Amino acid sequence: MKIIEQFLRGKINDTLCEDTIVANDNFVAIIDGVTSKSDFSYQRKTTGKWASTIVAQVLDESPEETTLPEIISRVNQQFTDFYDDVAFTDDIVSKGLQAVGVIYSKHFNELWMIGDCQAYVNGKVLFTPKKSDEILSQMRSLVLTTNFQTTDAKPADYMTGEDPSRTEILPWILKATNFANEDGTDFGYSIFNGTPIPESLINVVKLDDEPQEIGLASDGYPQIQSTLKDSEATLADVIQNDPLCYQQFPSTKGLHEGNKSFDDRSYIRFSTEE
């Protein structure tokens, strides 16, 4: 494998970024720690940062023939060990360690997609949206559009202060975690959270044997493109024209003044050629 380009940028700063990039001899991956929903911090790391760090560590320590079920099992054990060692008083289901990721296995020549990270393969964008997030993004858009039509509020007001639309949907974001790794409902989604992940919720993509370039990205990009430059341009367009992320790119959160973007972001492009 040859790494062509990679980039990581925290929405506030890179130290606080909850994304992690993996690039070793066996695996290439983007791991996106779920945005922390509490004030918990241990060794100056949030739950999202701990989650992505643990998953990345497992990938760095796993031999090339390691299967995805084995990786999930090792991550789950590491999460269990974390809770055994650290006093965590918040609800583990809704506010505990959580991460999504897209992983390339050199040995199996496959992409393993857990959650809503993105991949760019053969001119196609691969992405598995989270149904509850799609609905809540539209709900947030409705709240903002209604507020702007019926009050004197302006978008800039919500970028500098509290965003009432985020406040409105946050309880439902937390409630939707009950569908994590549940395959008996349309709202089910896959995620690293310490519980078994049903195969039906994992997108396994078998790649062509011929050498090719592959791009991976977190959902901090509105849509992954074939290059980092083009992915950044797509993001810049949204930040310029829809900073609250409720029209052009409906999302569960928008840009806060002083931040670099609405979310942490990470991107890596590589060739499968030896």
From TrEMBL:
Protein name (Swiss-Prot/TrEMBL): Uncharacterized protein
**What organism, scientifically named, is this protein from?**
Secundilactobacillus collinoides (Lactobacillus collinoides)
